[in-house]
Design brief:
By secondary structure, the protein is an alpha/beta fold. The chain has 15 helices and nine strands. The strands form three sheets. A five-stranded parallel β-sheet has the order 2-5-8-1-9. The chain has a two-stranded antiparallel sheet with strand order 3-4. Bound molecules: adenosine-5'-triphosphate (ATP) and magnesium ion (MG).
Length: 342
C-alpha cells in the first residue's frame, strides 16, 4: 500500500517529508505534536509505511477515548480471571503490534498511573498482562501523538518527565494551517481531484480569487480536516458563498478564550472535594478525588462550549482541540445533556 500523501509546499511540510525518510528505518521513538486535524496520524502512517516494519501490523490506541482500567487492559491484555468479567484471555495491543508499530494517539491524556507502566516497558522491553506472572517481551516501534503541550503538562505534574524524554527522541511538530497558508492552494487542488473522481456526477468549483482570499485569511481551527469538510460541503451545495459565510461565524466561535470562561477551573476542582461532608476514610483515595475534580472541570468546560456552539459537536471539538471521537466519548462518559427545550 502506498503511504497517504503529505501535501504541501511550505518549508515545514518539505522538512517533515524529509525527516520521515531519515527517521523511518531507525525505529527511534517519535512524538508527533500539533493541533487537531494538522495531519499527525498521516505522518505516523508515513513513518510506518516507509519503514522496514511496513509488512507488520500498525496498531492504533487512542489514550483519551478509554477510561484508565480499560486502557491498561487494552494495551497489555489480560489472563482469564484477572478481574471480574475477564472470562477469557485477551491479547493486548503491545502483543498485537509486535514487530510493527504501536501508535499511541493523544498520549498527553494517558493517566499518570499508566505512564509509569509504559515507562517500565520502554526501559525493559518487557511487560506482564494483567493477572499474569510471566513477562512478555515486546519489539514495537512506539510512535506517539498529542495536541497537548507536554512540557506544560510536566510542569503541572500531569505528565512524567522521565517518560517524556524516553518518548521524545525525535519530535515532529506540524504547525497549524493558518501558519502555512501557502499549503492551502495545493491542498485544495489535491482534494478537489480526489473528491471529483470519487463522486463523478459532482463538479467541484475551484474558488475564485475573492473566495480564495477569504480562505487564506481564515484561521482554520480544525486545520486540514476542516478544509476537507469545507470542500465536501461545497461539493454538495454547489457554491462557495454560503460556506464562506459559515466560516466567518466559526471564527467568531473560535475566539472563546480560556480567560473569558464564565467559570473557574479552580472553584470547580476544589468543590469536587467537599470538607463539609466528613470523608469516609475507608474509601478515601486521592485517585478518586483527582478523577472527580477533573471530571467536574471538564464537564463544565465542555458544556459551556457546546452551549456556545449550539451543540454543534464538530465545532465544539475544534474549539476544545480534541478529536470528534473523544468529544463524543466525553459527552457520554460525563453524562452531558443538551438543554431540554420548554
Ligand atoms: N498535509 C496533508 N496532506 C494531505 N492530507 C492531509 C494533510 N494533513 C492532514 N491531512 C488529512 O486531514 C485529515 C486529518 O488528519 P489527521 O487525522 O492525520 O489529523 P490529526 O492531527 O491526527 O488530528 P487529531 O488531533 O484530531 O487526531 C486526514 O484525512 C488527513 O488525511
Ligand atoms: Mg489523530
Amino acid at each position: 500500500m502506498e503511504p497517504p500523501v503529505i501535501v504541501g509546499v511550505s518549508k515545514e511540510i518539505v522538512k517533515i517529508n524529509d525527516l520521515i525518510k531519515h527517521v523511518s528505518d531507525t525505529g527511534l521513538n517519535v512524538v508527533i505534536t500539533g493541533e487537531t486535524g494538522v495531519g499527525k496520524e498521516v505522518v505516523a502512517q508515513n513513518l510506518y509505511q516507509n519503514s522496514p516494519r511496513k509488512n507488520k501490523p500498525f496498531v492504533k490506541v487512542n489514550c483519551a477515548a478509554l477510561p484508565e482500567g480499560l486502557l491498561e487492559s487494552e494495551l497489555y491484555g489480560y489472563e482469564r480471571g484477572a478481574f471480574t468479567g475477564a472470562d477469557q484471555k485477551k491479547r493486548g495491543k503491545f502483543e498485537l503490534a509486535n514487530g510493527g508499530v504501536l501508535f499511541l494517539d493523544e498520549i498527553g491524556d494517558m493517566p499518570i498511573s499508566l505512564q509509569s507502566k509504559l515507562l517500565h516497558v520502554l526501559q525493559s522491553g518487557e511487560y506482564a498482562p494483567l493477572g499474569s506472572e510471566k513477562e512478555l517481551t515486546t519489539d514495537t516501534w512506539l510512535i506517539t501523538a498529542t495536541n497537548h503541550d507536554l512540557e506544560k503538562e510536566i510542569k503541572k505534574k500531569l505528565f512524567r518527565e522521565d517518560l517524556y524524554y524516553r518518548l521524545n527522541i525525535i519530535r515532529i511538530h506540524i504547525s497549524p494551517l493558518r501558519k502555512r497558508p501557502e499549503d492551502i492552494q495545493p491542498l485544495i487542488d489535491y482534494y478537489i481531484d480526489i473528491y471529483t473522481s470519487k463522486f463523478d456526477n459532482k463538479h467541484l468549483l475551484r474558488p475564485e480569487k475573492r473566495i480564495f482570499d477569504k480562505l487564506l485569511a481564515y484561521s482554520w481551527p480544525g486545520n486540514v480536516r476542516e478544509l476537507q469538510n469545507v470542500l465536501k460541503r461545497v461539493l454538495v451545495l454547489g457554491n462557495w458563498d454560503e460556506i464562506i459565510d459559515e466560516l466567518i461565524f466559526d471564527e467568531a466561535a473560535g475566539d472563546i478564550k480560556s480567560d473569558a470562561l464564565p467559570f473557574s477551573p479552580d472553584t470547580a476542582a476544589s468543590s469536587a472535594f467537599n470538607y463539609s461532608e466528613p470523608p469516609d476514610l475507608e474509601s478515601f483515595s486521592l485517585k478518586d478525588i483527582r478523577k472527580q475534580a477533573l471530571d467536574k472541570v471538564e464537564k463544565e468546560a465542555i458544556s459551556y462550549v457546546l452551549e456556545k456552539t449550539g451543540w454543534n459537536r464538530s465545532k465544539a471539538a475544534r474549539i476544545l482541540k480534541i478529536s470528534y471521537k473523544t468529544l463524543l466519548y466525553k459527552i457520554s462518559d460525563l453524562n452531558i445533556r443538551p438543554p431540554v427545550s420548554p
